[in-house]
Every structure is written in structure tokens, then in C-alpha cells.
Amino acid sequence: MDGDGESASRQMPQPQVFKAPRLVSRPKPPVQQEEEMGNEIKLGDFEDVHALSVSEARAVVAAVHEARKKKDPENNPLRDRIYNDNQIITHFLDYLENFARYKEEESIISIGALFDTHPELSTVERALLGTLTPETADEATTLIPSLNDKLHTDELQAILDELNKMQDRLR
């Protein structure tokens, strides 16, 4: 029997060890540029895109929304009502209405004219100033560090004072 015990242990198959397949992944494209808002604005792929403030976006979206509502059904084969009155559009319009600082078209045009007198400001800085509407130059340069080298504190404060005068506060 001693021989049988040895042969039985020899006949037991050894458990196989599972090896996971080697992970193969596609090479990732190199990161071209980090997006950051520092002393120099780096926006990556969005570098040359025109930025809008919330007030400007509200004016554009509201105009498109109204134009779609007025479309004649015969000239509207896609029946835009489906896309025009859905919940997402309604919430988006509500958001823009709540957070737009300048709701009158004249105010938006005046702000554009004010910013046109300062060509050193990028469209992103203009949009941020129009959306955030800081009260002091110190607050503005803290929120938008790239303004430090572009405008003197007094000049920036004059712009901010003008922006605050045009703000539609309780509408």
C-alpha cells in the first residue's frame, strides 16, 4: 500500500495557475498645453474661440429661442417645437435669466463699447469681467490674474465702476 499512496499522489493533477493577458492600450496623444487661468491665459483648443459672458449668452439664446417659436409650421419641417420647448432648454433659459447681470440690450451694447476702448483685454477677460462683475480692482485681479499686467489699478477700477452702474440689479 505504500506504493499505492505514492502513485495516487503522483496521479493528482496540479492546479493550473491563471495568468491574465497582458494589458495593451492605445498610445495616448501627448498633452499639447495645459488649460489654466494664471498670469497668462492658456485655453488649449479654445484659445481662438470668442468667449461670451452669461448676459451675452442669454441675449443670443433668447433670440434664437424666440425665432424658433415664431417659425411657421409649413416652413419648419423638423417641427422645432420638440427641441425648443423641452425641459433642458427651459432650465437653461432659467439659468441664464437668473445669472445674467445685464438683461437690457442697451446695457450689453454699452458694455461691448466700453470693452472696445480697451483692446488689450482678451475676449475671455471681457466675458469674465461681464459675468463676475467684481466691485474692486483688487477683487478683479484676484479672480482674473491675467489683468495684473494689462491694466493699471485705477483704469481697471474705472471700468468696474462703469460696469456696476450698468448692472440690472432687481429685475
Describe the structure.
By secondary structure, the protein is mainly α. Helix content is 50%, strand content 2%. Among the domains are: 54-99, no CATH class; 105-166, Growth Hormone, Chain: A. It has 8 helices and 2 strands; from the N terminus they run αββααααααα. The protein has a two-stranded antiparallel ribbon. Strand 1 (36-37) and strand 2 form a beta hairpin. Helix 2 crosses helix 4 and helix 5 (105-116) runs antiparallel to helix 8 (153-166). The longest helix is centred in the middle third of the chain and has 16 residues, at 54-69. It is flat and about 95 Å long. The model has no long low-confidence stretch (mean pLDDT 81). GO terms for molecular function: nucleotide binding. It holds the Pfam family RNA_pol_Rpb4.
Keywords:
Growth Hormone, Chain: A; mainly alpha; two-stranded antiparallel sheet; single chain; 171 residues
In CATH, the topology of the domain at 105-166 is named Growth Hormone, Chain: A
**For this structure, what is the CATH class of the domain at 105-166?**
Mainly Alpha
The mean pLDDT is 81
**First-to-last CA distance:** 100 Å
What structural category characterises the helix and strand content?
Answer: mainly alpha
The helix/strand series, from N terminus to C terminus, equals: HEEHHHHHHH
Instruction: Catalogue the unreliable spans.
Output: none
Q: CATH H level of the domain at 105-166: which superfamily?
A: RNA Polymerase II, Rpb4 subunit
- Sketch the major β-sheet: 2 strands, antiparallel
**Spatial strand arrangement across the major sheet:** 1-2
Instruction: Please give the share of residues in helix.
Output: 40-55%
The CATH architecture assignment of the domain at 105-166 turns out to be Up-down Bundle
Approximately what portion of the residues adopt beta-strand conformation?
under 5%
Q: How many beta-strand segments?
A: 2
Q: Can you count the helices?
A: 8
3D shape: flat
Rg, Cα atoms, Å: 30 Å
